[in-house]
Amino acid sequence: MTAPWTLQQINAVAPDPSSLTAARGVASAWLETGHDTTALWGLCRGRGTTPYRTAIHPSAPAYTCTCPSRKLPCKHALSLLVRWSEGAVPTGQAPDFVTGWLAARAASTAPPAPADEPVKAPDPATAQRRAERVAAGLDDLDRWLTDRIRHGLGAVDHGYDTYEAIAARMVDAQAPGVASALRALAAVVNDETDWPARLLEEYARLHLMAVAYRQRDELPRPLLRSLQTHLGFGTRSEEVRAEPAVRDRWQVLAVRVTEESRMFTRKTWLRGRSSGRWAILLDFAHGTARFAAPLPFPGSLVDADLHFYPGAAPLRAVLGRQHGETEPFTTLPATGLDAALDEYARMRGADPWLRTWPVLLDAVTPTDSEDGWYVVDPSGRALPLAGDDDSRWRLHAVAGGRPVTVCGDWDGTALAPVSLFTGGQVMTW
């Protein structure tokens, strides 16, 4: 098993600061604990007569606990990790509830056996009907956009109902990606000072989609796949896993969990240690943030295969076979502003509908000025910072006026930070 985790690693996997506080509150409730070469476990007193059974597989990492908490890891798992880091978990023989859980995990996470027959392609008639619906919907959208430009942005209605009506037409046309983009436009008008420029940019993006889809038979295959993705076409997991595996030592730079209408999304930023290639993993869970597949924590490195979704600028991927255990990394191949912006420009050139691209900026200092928030490099060049004031002040406070390494998403206008590295520590939000 890997060496006991540090407090930094434990902080990185905690779902929120309150969970760490709660973990300290149960430090004296442990009845027995133990660990072997694979797992650590313990029994912790709760409110009932039966203690909670907690087990952890640190190499995955993965957690299980019989407590009713919907957080993962729960306070009992965090408390057990803290005891392990302090050397307070003795060696022992794993009880049945631990070995049974590990066996079930091994069975559920084993790679699927190769199919005897190739995965069947979608029915051509069904695909053709959808293509015709999408084409008709995009033609209607293009006429709608043309009318609004002809009348002038200041003379047309920008209420939510207006954008909802055309978004509903896109849903009927089976182009949900376009519908989502349209629903966001009313907020642009209401919330942004320079909304005409932003609105024109979004209208141009939608118009380009409509024009490109009319000429879809002439597009290169990767670009067509990118266009279909932005329109809302799904890609089957079997098709993604059939893509060639890309093996690297992937550095886990950030993990973020968000929730909307009880649908939890976990987004993980990875970067290849050797190739410098970016990858984004997306996992979903309904009702609770208990995701089926465990992932390494930020600040760790995993030797693994990734399979990328097809497209002109492949970024989203799924995790394939892992080679060996995870380990912490100590160095970061961060770049300066020029290299990061050049990469964004290349990716945007390959996929003109792409909104953001990850960056890892070295030696930048978060700065609050009269003109707003920025990260400033040693030569004095700056990029605007996106996000709310709370997150930007946290970034500023942790940096303490010193240069740090920042990971985030750049959209051509502002940087949305997702993690910060300084003094061997990682902070995510």
TrEMBL record:
Chain ranges of the SWIM-type domain: 52-85
InterPro entries membership: Znf_SWIM
Domain of life: Bacteria
Region entry Disordered, spans: 108-130
Record keywords: Metal-binding, Zinc, Zinc-finger
Record protein name field: SWIM zinc finger
